[in-house]
Write a structure and sequence with these properties.
Strand content: 15-25%
Structural class: alpha/beta
CATH architecture of the largest domain: 3-Layer(aba) Sandwich
Order of helices and strands: EHEHHEHEHHEHEHEEEEHEEHEHEHH
CATH superfamily of the largest domain: Thiamin diphosphate (ThDP)-binding fold, Pyr/PP domains
Distance between the termini: 27 Å
Number of strands: 14
Strand order of the largest sheet: 3-2-4-5-7-6-12
Shape: globular
CATH class of the largest domain: Alpha Beta
């Protein structure tokens, strides 16, 4: 992956809301005093009448977004994932999901990639909190181009959408004309021995792991499961039927996120040996993104080890 261009996924979010704002006058942005950090200040400069900064008040942000949606606007509400999913969960549940409102929730700085900001800012539970809510759709894009495409795809969706993206630069896996469809994943590598299912920052590491496994005579397929909810059941079952073994990789707690979504689907329809590379019931810690990812075992080598162990 060293030859791939590196770019933070949050830049794709900015590109997405800017394009959406130019194309649709109903698009508005509500944020929590972090516009410079996540990049939404570009929208404020271009469309000052459609930008609302409510300060560090996540519950008010979601309440205002609900009101804007009821008036026919398409609000994008953005701040750090750990705060928007945690502090405003009740407003998201009752004020937005219960009424199935067209609110797009941007969870920035997801996972361990926040690095030096430490455990309080590393959202490792946000996907689980959003996934349990009826009517909520969840997208976890792997690079900036896919993040931009996720923003644009969310506009066409009915009801709330949670888009989770990170701060640390990741490899660009997709081209600038990438399209995203909610409920659909992408088969990046076809395999016969084991299926690697990943989302977000773990997709590029899964591709790297598949290359290592291939060099050891193991045919590993890679699914980019950008749509954590609804899950691409058809794609998952089709690949697992071929391989009979699954490793799920995500920058999130092992409980409640992509691993659980995959495990629940397979337990009911196609039980196979499986394992996960994720954070196991622990808070994060401070350090560079690469140091923190390595500390918690979110690496290509860990994916390789889990895959080999399953096949043994």
């Amino acid at each position: 992956m060293k030859d791939l261009n590196l770019k933070p996924t949050r830049e794709g979010y900015v590109e997405g809301i800017m394009q959406a704002g130019r194309e649709n006058s109903r698009v508005v942005v509500v944020e929590g005093d972090v516009s410079r950090s996540i990049g939404s200040n570009s929208f404020r400069e271009a469309f000052p009448d459609r930008f609302f900064n409510l300060g560090v008040s996540e519950q008010d942000m979601l309440g205002e977004a609900a009101g804007l949606a009821l008036e026919g606007f398409i609000p994008f509400v953005g701040t750090y994932g750990v705060f928007i999913a945690g502090r405003a969960w009740d407003q998201i549940r009752t004020g937005i999901c219960y009424m199935n409102l067209d609110v797009r929730i941007a969870g920035a700085h997801g996972g361990l990639s926040v690095g030096p900001d430490g455990a309080t800012h590393q959202a490792l539970e946000d996907v689980a909190l959003m996934r349990v809510l009826p009517n909520m759709k969840i997208l976890v894009p792997a690079d900036s181009n896919q993040t931009r495409a996720s923003v644009l795809a969310s506009i066409e969706a009915e009801g709330p959408v949670y888009i989770r993206f990170g701060r640390n630069p990741v490899p660009q896996l997709y081209t600038s004309d990438e399209k995203v469809k909610i409920g659909r994943g992408n088969l990046l590598i076809d395999g016969n021995d084991v299926t690697l299912v990943a989302c977000g920052a773990m997709v590029s590491l899964s591709i790297e792991a598949a290359s290592i496994l291939n060099g050891r005579g193991i045919s590993a397929g890679v699914i980019d499961m950008i749509s954590v909810k609804p899950l691409d059941r058809e794609l998952l079952l089709g690949q697992v039927e071929k391989t009979g073994a699954v490793v799920v990789a995500e920058d999130h707690q092992s409980t409640g996120g992509l691993f659980c979504a995959v495990a629940e689907t397979l337990a009911l329809e196609m039980p196979v040996p499986m394992d996960t590379v994720s954070v196991r019931d622990s808070f994060g810690t401070s350090g560079s993104p690469s140091e923190v990812m390595a500390k918690f075992g979110l690496t290509a080598s860990a994916i390789v080890e889990k895959a080999q162990r399953l096949l043994q």
